[in-house]
Amino acid sequence: MREVAKYKGCFVCGDDNQCGLKAHFYFDGVKVTTECEAERRFEGYANIYHGGITAALLDEVMIKALLAKEIFAMTVELTVRFHKAILIGQKLFLEGQLELQNGRLYIAKGKVRLENGEIAATAEGRYLKVKDEMKEQLLKSLDS
To answer: Does the pTM exceed 0.85?
Structure first.
């Protein structure tokens, strides 16, 4: 497995973002995965992980599935389904993969599993492949 490119300032994957998640994403040739812990600093209700952070992780794991294949795209739609509350301190296992392409539109799916294997959330994302000038800007952002 190889680590997927990242931007050091990104809230989800950036090592230099002091308030970020600092998640590392890995590609096995088919899907992208990451693991993290539901930290208290991202609490929504008492002892419950904020759903917006879960959504951000899902968006990132899905777009990394495109980036791992050198597809430069931006999110145009994100649908998240929450199946089970994530409690603070739980370990999360995320995966995302490209499902289909229709012209410049890509559809990816993602999920969050808990340590016991239960699915806590699923997502579908729609991503639009960027044009050359935006691709150049995105390339400049990536860590070398």
So the answer is: yes
Question: Quick one: pLDDT at residue 138?
Answer: 87
The structure tokens listed for 92 are 């999360």
Q: d(Cα 136, Cα 141) in Å, to the nearest integer?
A: 9
92 contacts 86 by C-beta, under 8 angstroms:
yes
Total domains, the chain: 1
Reported in sequence order, the residue ranges of the chain that DSSP labels E, i.e. its strands, are: 2-3, 26-27, 32-37, 73-82, 91-102, 105-114, 119-129
Identify residue 100 by its one-letter amino acid code.
Answer: L
> Could you tell me which residues are beta bridge partners of residue 76?
none
Residue 12 sits in a domain whose CATH number is 3.10.129.10
Q: State mean pLDDT over 38-42.
A: 97
Q: Which residues neighbour 108 within 8 Å (Cβ) at sequence distance 6 or greater?
A: 62, 63, 65, 66, 96, 97, 98, 99, 124, 125, 127
Task: Look at residue 144 and tell me whether its pLDDT is greater than 60.
Answer: no
Q: What domain range includes position 9?
A: 2-141
Angle ∠(46,77,66) on CA atoms, nearest 5: 100
- Residue 111 near residue 122 (C-beta atoms within 8 A): yes
